Amino acid sequence: MVYFVGAGPGDMELITVKGMKVLQNADVVIYTGSLVSGNILAYCKEGVQVYNSAEMDLPEVIEAIQQGVDQGKSVVRLHTGDPSIYGAIREQMDELGKRGIEFEIIPGVSSFVAAASRVKAEFTLPGVSQTIIITRKEGRTGSSEGGKLSELAKHRASMAIFLSVQSIGQVVEELLTGYDEDTPVAVVYKATWPEEKIIRGTLKDIAEKVAEEKIDRHAQILVGDFMGSEYELSKLYDASFSHMYRRGKE
Question: Which residues form the Tetrapyrrole methylase domain (predicted)?
Fold first, then answer.
């Protein structure tokens, strides 16, 4: 059996219990060494065969999986965060499907929610934003479907931007087409890792602050008024609000 497992954002305790158990029983582990903390391999049993996919291309990854399956071994393909977000797993799953290899996906904690936890923020605040946009700046993988940052910024939603901190100046320029320059921004480098750094600012000054810290990779850019101080209280816990579990007080 093959398992695609989300390793979480960095802290080895943020893998799910299910993911940890599968990893503990794995005979073969193919992990994204450029992004996944090697510490998580401490869960693996003695004698496990480990591949670092940062040094492999797609055919090599698939061949390693195939060899493990042919030998009746349990194979774990370990991805950073949650594999469904910028995990490039579709192409792997399609190849396994062609070969008749069964697989299962075990979700993980994505870096964008880990980053929100580290800045102690809630993406969805009443009266502020009920929408989260997860995106990245256009790069070698091509443009998004109607999703240029300058167009997405017009929604003024809470935003988590992956894989873009190396172009923070251009990111800010595009965001300013929709957000005000005093919109809060947080850049979280390696959220939950020991070397984590959090840089707070606004669209007016965040590029300069990031440049001073020399951060050009492995960072989430969080943007939006959800990190501000103004919001409305939730109706969920409003004493006068009735729902199926509680009658409101007059």
Answer: 1-206
Contacts of 169 (CB under 8 A, 6+ apart): 207
CATH of domain 2-106: 3.40.1010.10
111-227: CATH number: 3.30.950.10
Q: How many CB atoms lie within 10 A of CB 248?
A: 11
Separation between Cα atoms, residue 204 and residue 222, nearest integer Å? 14
**What is the chain's Cα-based Rg?**
21
| pLDDT tens, N- to C-terminus, the chain (250 residues) | 999 999 999 999 999 999 999 999 999 999 988 888 889 999 999 999 999 999 999 999 999 999 999 999 999 999 999 999 999 999 999 999 999 999 999 999 999 999 999 999 999 999 999 999 999 987 655 555 556 899 999 999 999 999 999 999 999 999 999 999 999 999 999 999 999 999 999 999 999 999 999 999 999 999 999 999 888 887 666 555 555 565 656 6
